[in-house]
Known about the structure:
This protein has 156 residues and is α+β, with helices and mostly antiparallel strands.
Amino acid sequence: MSDCVFCKILAREIPSTTVFENGAVAAFLDVNPMEKGHVLVVPKRHWPTLADVPAGAAEREVRDALADAVRLLAKAALRAGWAGANVLQCNGEAAGQTVGHLHFHVIPRPAGGAVPPAFESGAARYADDAERAAVAEKLRAAVAAVLAEEAAAAAR
Ligand SMILES: [Zn+2]
């Protein structure tokens, strides 16, 4: 979709801070984070909502990759030192979806944060580009640690 901001990010026409990517999905920092470290996990195929994802065998690999990336990023948030993580997924404007390309929010939460957590875009701000880069690097390192640990466990 030529007018889709996430497709433009995936095509690298718009810059983003990627923390994980494989052949089927990408995960990058939300530009209006609810909390520092807020990541969006998106399929590389353009589907507006979950309801648009085909149920057939041909798309099973993408569905599995998407679910596994959400699992990985939530685990990485905990590994990176956050106390908790929310996963949020919105389908349609009525549900608060603002970009019409399927995505899962993985929102790391510090200990002692507001309960219930604030699901407000822009609720958090990075002090500067260096802090954003440091948070992304912390997540990337945690993703790498989790993947290495799981590969070692699978090889046993
Ligand atoms: Zn798109």
